[in-house]
UniProtKB/TrEMBL annotation:
Coiled coil: none annotated. Gene3D superfamilies: Immunoglobulins (2.60.40.10), Low-density Lipoprotein Receptor (4.10.400.10), Pancreatic trypsin inhibitor Kunitz domain (4.10.410.10). Disulfide bonds join 309-321, 316-334, 328-343. Residues 48-131 form the MANSC domain. Residues 479-489 have a biased composition (Low complexity). It comes from Stercorarius parasiticus. Residues 1-31 form the signal peptide. GO terms for molecular function: serine-type endopeptidase inhibitor activity. Residues 474-504 are annotated as: Disordered. The chain crosses the membrane at residues 443-465. This is SPIT1 inhibitor. InterPro entries: Ig-like_fold (IPR013783), Kunitz_BPTI (IPR002223), Kunitz_BPTI_sf (IPR036880), LDL_receptor-like_sf (IPR036055), LDLR_class-A_CS (IPR023415), LDrepeatLR_classA_rpt (IPR002172), MANSC_dom (IPR013980), MANSC_N (IPR011106). SMART domains: KU (SM00131), LDLa (SM00192), MANEC (SM00765), PKD (SM00089). It comes from the Eukaryota.
């Protein structure tokens, strides 16, 4: 926030109190011929008592960041390297054993502030020396003087700075503020950012901030105690835009090259939740949170914004996907507001469609025949726009549609002139193909039935003729001697006389 960084830092750690009690202010620039940058840089640092080393595990565990280890050989060069990094506030050097000159064998640069609180921890260790930026040191000394009065002034505290998504409401609290005799009032005011935000007071120390859009906001809390002594502090709220959201929420987790073991949190956009992972200790990306609450606040409901939005999702202009029903709900759900951008045009074009003069008199004539939900068998007629005539169908007795007539004449009178050009879509094509299949099937069945009948008739005729021939053979008389003689005589006569010699 906008509060002096050292003020918040100084409240955070008994280790820091021990460290400051041992510091000696050393002016390294006096008498040296340095460039203006070097002189100014060296004046910005204090030197700590020798033999205090940074407890790196405890410091990183609490949020400190290891920045780099430049290859330099003097303490002043290590401080100059720290000056070149705006996030650096501690230069730790490892001295060369057995020498009192400004020769070092290691330089380590760190950022000891996390959410404006000093989080570095120190331990006794021979051969090390710490250099801290004066603004942090001076703020701590001022805080010690501030606490030395009989009636201590109040101390305003707002909690950590925040990163949030656009449109997400935020609750600011001042309950962490303290005073030895009690706080009588809490006053919140906005000192930076879009003035269109809304502030609504809840409890005595709480205020809800809403209508936040992408940008940076600073709010100030002023507390007053029973003696009318006051203190104030600031809290910064960064409302992430699409590019910042990409860095803070959509970047894959990064363990880093270092081999430490520090529990951290990252946002998993696929599952839309924050998950714990083990951070190596250096070169973190921005999707790296010390506490789960920070992660959830910064990345609430953030989706992957690759533009690949499948139905039923709505694609925002920035490529993010939201549920389609959130479009035109009078709430900005896309970070860029594109879900509410075309709502007026949408309604205007719909109204334009409603004003088109459309006749509904024959609209039912292109509906498919519908038997309804009931199971009766009532003969009815429907109009077929493909054949341009009315065909019979069986109606169930309830439901259905208006392409349903009791008489063929009534059907033709209602739908005459309607053709297949008036039937839109493939429903009728499917219905016609089904009807054609049924008709072909009926023809085949009829043909097969005819063939079967002919075969049956042929079989019956065959047996009838066979039985009749048997009956005829049974009626023939048996052969006698007279008949046999006569027959023989006649045969002899026939053979003896030819047609030309037989007497008349």
């Amino acid at each position: 926030g906008g509060e002096d960084q050292g003020t918040k830092m100084a409240r955070g750690s008994p280790w820091f109190a021990l460290w400051v009690c041992l510091v000696l202010v050393v002016d390294f620039g006096e008498g040296q011929e340095e460039k203006p940058f070097g002189e100014k840089c060296l004046e910005d640092f204090t030197a700590g008592m020798p033999d205090l080393v940074l407890d790196i595990d405890a410091s990183v565990q609490n949020g400190a960041t290891f920045l780099s280890s430049p290859m330099v050989h003097r303490s002043r060069d290590c401080m100059r390297a720290c000056c070149k990094d705006p996030t650096c506030n501690l230069a730790l050097v490892e001295q060369v054993p057995g020498t009192e000159e400004d020769h070092i064998q290691g330089c380590f640069l760190l950022n000891c502030l996390y959410d404006q609180a000093f989080v570095c921890r120190f331990a006794r260790k021979f051969g090390f020396l710490n250099f801290l930026r004066k603004d942090v040191y001076d703020s701590y000394v001022a805080m010690q003087d501030h606490r030395s009065s009989d009636d201590h002034p109040p101390i305003a505290r707002t909690g950590m700075d925040m990163r949030v998504q656009p449109g997400e409401p935020v609750m600011l609290r001042g309950t962490e503020s303290t005073d030895d005799r009690g706080i009588v009032s809490y006053e919140w005011k906005q000192i930076l950012g879009d003035p269109s935000v809304e502030m609504k007071k809840h409890e005595e120390d709480q205020v809800e901030i809403s209508n936040l859009q992408a940008g940076t906001y600073v709010f100030q809390l002023t507390v007053t105690d029973t003696a009318q002594q006051q203190d104030f502090t600031n809290i910064t709220i960064v409302v992430l835009n699409s590019e910042q959201t990409e860095e803070h929420c959509l970047t894959p987790k990064k363990v880093g090259w270092c081999r430490g073991s520090f529990p951290r949190w990252f946002y998993n956009p696929s599952l839309q939740q924050c998950e714990e992972f083990i951070f190596g200790g250096c070169k973190a990306n921005k999707n790296n949170y010390l506490r789960e609450e920070e992660c959830q606040l910064a990345c609430k409901n953030v989706r992957v914004c690759n533009g690949n939005c499948q139905s039923p999702l709505f694609r925002c202009k920035d490529g993010c996907c939201i549920d389609a029903y959130l479009e035109c709900d009078e709430t900005l759900d896309c970070a860029d507001g594109s879900d509410e951008m075309y709502c007026e045009q949408y309604a205007r074009e719909f109204n334009r469609l409603q004003k088109i003069n459309v006749t509904h008199k024959q609209g039912h004539c292109v509906d498919l025949p519908d038997t309804g939900q009931c199971t009766e068998s009532i003969p009815r007629w429907y109009y077929n726009p493909f054949s341009e005539k009315c065909d019979p169908f069986t109606y169930g007795g309830c439901g259905g549609n208006n392409n349903n007539f009791e008489e063929e004449e009534e059907c033709m009178k209602s739908c005459s002139g309607i053709t297949k050009a008036d039937a839109i879509g493939r429903r009728w094509e499917s219905f016609e193909s089904q009807s054609a299949i049924l008709s072909a099937f009926e023809v085949v069945i009829a043909a097969l039935l005819g063939i079967c009948i002919m075969v049956v008739l042929a079989i019956i005729g065959y047996f009838f003729l066979k039985n009749r021939k048997k009956k005829n053979s049974r009626r023939r008389q048996p052969t006698t001697a007279t008949n046999s003689t006569l027959s023989t005589t006649e045969d002899t006569e026939h053979l003896f006389y030819s047609s030309t010699t037989k007497p008349v």
